[in-house]
Amino acid sequence: MKEIAAVFVFFTRLPFWRLKAFNVPTECYKQVVNYWPVAGWLTASVMAGVLWMSAQILPMPIAVILSIVSRLLVTGGLHEDGLADFFDGFGGGNTKNHTLEIMKDSHIGTYGVLGLIIYFLLLYNLLCALPLPFVCLVILSADPLCKLIGSLITLFLTYARTAETSKTKVVYNKISVKPFLVSAFFGLLPVVFLLNVRYWLAVIFPLIIFVILISLMKKKIQGYTGDCCGALFLLCEVSFYLGIVILMNAIKL
Q1: Distance CA 47, CA 176 (A)
Q2: For every one of its 253 residues, what pLDDT tens digit does the chain have, with 9 covering 90 and above?
Q3: Which of 24, 28, 131, 207 is the most exposed place for a label (fewest CB within 10 A)?
Q4: CB burial of residue 48 (10 Å; 0-12, 13-18, 19+)
Q5: 224 in helix, strand or coil?
């Protein structure tokens, strides 16, 4: 499927574009957000795999850092760039146009720096708080799940820019039945089969973050951008890890 091929080309820095099968029309890139969880299987597998192998010969904190770096290398820091721009724009913007202008600026500001520092500190400490076999399963579940939740943004908001003013020159399509079913399969399957039912309650955490951020985007820019998608995914994911840690500690009591 060409749309799936576009997802791997768009969301990773791996040389898929060299393969003929991944030579897809520009039109397919309008669907990448709708099929986002498919890429989550790849990025989550890399992250969990690096963590597992590194932890066999290195202390857990170092293995966690290497696993985080591995996903950054695979994605080129695409989502983290969006998170920084999101914090800068929504932290410093007074109007819709001002917010969008800040988010498009390639320079990072104070809000972006602080946002990334807090995000990585949370991510690192939450992953370190989980035992090795379990944290790998959680990573394999969290990435696709939170990309599924993030992909639902097209149901509630319209794109805030035009194709000409967009960084990627692409305006994403609203999710339809077929991509939703595919995304739901890839997003929910790991949670159902890899995590004990006691931890399914953690899904509430990213859903709450989703509602809060969607409301904020609607108020500030009356829509969303690619940066908003990246920020939404990362904040939903870190909130899922937070929920898992809370539930794990509650179960121990």
Answers
A1: 30
A2: 788 888 998 999 988 767 766 777 778 788 999 999 999 999 999 999 999 999 999 999 999 999 999 999 999 999 999 999 999 999 998 899 999 999 988 889 999 999 999 999 999 999 999 999 999 999 999 999 999 999 999 999 999 877 666 666 678 889 899 999 999 999 999 999 999 999 999 999 999 999 999 999 999 999 999 999 999 999 999 999 999 999 999 987 6
A3: 131
A4: buried
A5: strand
Q: What angle do CA 75, 41, 63 make, to 5 degrees?
A: 65
Distances (CA, A) of 204 to 26, 142, 199, 241, 247: 35, 12, 10, 11, 12
Of residues 248, 253, 12, the one with CA closest to residue 126: 248
- HSE-up (13 A, CA, CB side) for residue 44: 26
Closest CA to 44 of 135, 125, 116, 119: 135
The burial class, CB within 10 Å (0-12 / 13-18 / 19+), for 170 is: buried
Rounded CA-CA distance 138/134 in Å is 6
